[in-house]
């Protein structure tokens, strides 16, 4: 578990098979040998597993420092709540810009 902007996230997972077909917010992270995770991107979806599987990972690969991990906060609260959470995290974190 990890805390990000006051929200608890599971992971980060390096095996994408561990992601659930469930709604929520996800963080794309990178690290050298699993140490010192850095943020690449934050996203939300009705189905996190599918969103990650279908993502355009070119941006992720450009910022990859060795390992890509996905941390997840599953939430059934609906899309508006997830978007609000995403905006809060984006505003409070030093996320790389495209």
Beta-strand content estimate:
35-45%
Task: Give a quick account of the main beta sheet: strands, pairing sense, barrel closure.
Answer: 5 strands, antiparallel
Mean pLDDT: 89
The gross shape turns out to be: globular
Structure class? alpha+beta
Q: What order do the helices and strands follow?
A: EEEEHHEH
Count all strands and give the number: 5
Which residues form runs of ≥5 with pLDDT under 50? Answer: none
Note down, in words, how this protein is organized:
This protein has 98 residues and is α+β, with helices and mostly antiparallel strands. The protein is built from 3 helices and 5 strands. The protein has a 5-stranded antiparallel sheet. A hairpin with a 2-residue loop joins strand 1 (2-4) and strand 2. The longest helix is centred in the last third of the chain and has 14 residues, at 79-92. The N and C termini lie far apart (27 Å). The mean pLDDT is 89.
